[in-house]
Amino acid sequence: MKLKNPASLDNLWLDEVTPRAPGPGEIQVAIKASSLNFHDYAVVAGMIPVEDGRVPMSDGAGEVLAIGDGVTEFSVGDGVLSYFFPKWVSGRPVASRLLGVPGDHVDGFASQVVTMPASWFSRMPSNLDFAAASTLTCAGLTAWRALMVETKLAPGDWVLVQGSGGVSVFALQLARAMGCRVIATSSSNEKLAKLGVLGAEVLINYREDPNWGNAALEATGGEGVSLVVEVGGPGNLPQSVRAIAFDGCISLIGILTGISGDVPTAALMQKNARISGITVGSQSDQAALIKAVEAHDIQPVIDRHFPLAELKAAFEFQASQQHFGKICVSF
């Protein structure tokens, strides 16, 4: 599947391309599944400019078909999982490490077969199928970094997650696996009930209670939450700052309410709290996430599967915000 400029959902088109044999250091992979992220939608909707004819989709899970000279880490038949940042091996984020994003800077995984450097892939978790594994590389890894890298949580700490998209649901699952307590917000009581089944013990409908920061404070006995997984951005920040504990962290991973806005800086300073911007994570973070997924048998929540030929319909379903968890494309 390719994207023709000017980018729009109507300019996605199927093309037939002969797969390229792998060169030295490369592998050829039969892609079995991908999953939709807001980043992918931003590309196909024209919010992120890309080259004409770009193959979209940043997530890819598949099976190795062939290996090039010098490749020792994989064998034919292995299940592999893509990296969102192929150049970010470990350490802190710097600009040069955040280049080469599949589906954006280079062609991505809306393709039945790809040939790419072996270093752009990790092993797949042993407990997941291709579709479930494909949800880890962006949404799962973003949640992991928010909980396990950018802040220090301990069992019993409170975590607040917003909504029921992929990152928020992963954050809930990971927080519960490590023994944290979870507050979940949503505008849908039906989705709140599902979040409760996954382990959120405090459920807040933010439309019914616009001052949900106060409700979170009350639920934690006035202490506040150690971490807010912030997907809304500026429109949510005043309530997130209200909910945060002293020395807490607001992990900013989404801007659904806009790209700029007011921040209650005095309250943030008084609480000695911080806002940490997050864009996915490193390859070493992904290795740690995979081990955690295997150890706790975490099963990603997938709302719906679409075939590749119906990628436009998959993005339309994503834009409707009806989904709970992830949306996958299967090949």
UniProtKB/TrEMBL annotation:
Lineage, highest ranks first: Bacteria, Pseudomonadati, Pseudomonadota, Gammaproteobacteria, Cellvibrionales
Single GO MF descriptor: oxidoreductase activity
Database matches in InterPro entries: ADH-like_C, ADH-like_N, ER, GroES-like_sf, NAD(P)-bd_dom_sf, Zinc_ADH-like
SUPFAM superfamilies associated with the record: GroES-like, NAD(P)-binding Rossmann-fold domains
Protein name, as recorded: Alcohol dehydrogenase superfamily, zinc-containing
Segments forming domain Enoyl reductase (ER): 7-329
Taxonomy, superkingdom: Bacteria
Pfam families attached to this UniProt entry: ADH_N (PF08240), ADH_zinc_N (PF00107)
Protein source organism: Luminiphilus syltensis NOR5-1B
